[in-house]
Write a structure and sequence with these properties.
Blueprint lengths: L6 H16 L7 H10 L3 H8 L4 H7 L7 H4 L2 H6 L4 H12 L19 H16 L7 H9 L5 H8 L4 H15 L1
Helix pairs in contact: 1-2, 1-9, 2-8, 2-9, 2-10, 3-9, 3-11, 8-9, 9-11
């Protein structure tokens, strides 16, 4: 299915898998697709930025799983070895960004499957591209695939951030029309 995806859309899907892994999830959900779209430059990221969204703010709204590496770190046990967990966390945040230690990938989980809402996002993106007589699927089509699912987790996240969904949808459609 991804062979018809433009490079920005394909990379957003790969980024979504990484976000799901960082979040300790066992599947890629539509929320992770949203994060992938925010990470990858393109029309979807531009529309989301124009709506006032940024990656870190949205990431804080996405549910986290229970497979965190950081959750396994025992500050007291490390202190007995002379390791200050807070100092390690501050250094990691400074080098790799806030929360980087919490987003450490879980070994052995390189290819997470798609949850139903993420699959529906992909199907909706293809449907949108076909409806607009496009041969390829862009990141903007992926975002429309999210916006067209009334009960997706990503739509819930967007609503939590106060995003004007109809305005975002109109902006994405305008960007697609301009790109034609």
């Amino acid at each position: 299915m991804l062979e018809r995806f433009e490079p920005d859309a394909r990379q957003a899907v790969a980024d979504a898998r990484q976000e799901a892994n960082w979040a300790g999830q066992d599947k890629v959900h539509s929320e992770h697709m949203l994060l992938g779209l925010l990470r990858e430059p393109g029309p979807a990221a531009d529309a989301l930025a124009a709506a006032g969204l940024d990656l870190d703010a949205v990431r804080r709204q996405v549910p986290q799983g229970g497979r965190y590496l950081a959750g396994e770190l025992d500050g007291e046990a490390l202190a007995t070895l002379g390791i200050d967990l807070d100092a390690v966390r501050r250094a990691t945040d400074a080098a790799f960004g806030p929360g980087a230690l919490d987003r450490a990938p879980v070994p052995g989980r390189s290819r997470l499957p798609f949850a139903d809402d993420a699959r529906q996002t992909l199907v909706g993106a293809v449907r949108q591209a076909q409806h607009q007589h496009r041969r390829t699927v862009s990141s903007a089509h992926l975002l429309l695939g999210i916006l067209d699912q009334p009960r997706s987790g990503a739509l819930t996240v967007l609503k939590k951030t106060g995003t004007d969904i109809p305005a975002l949808r109109a902006d994405v459609l305008a960007r697609i029309a301009t790109a034609a």
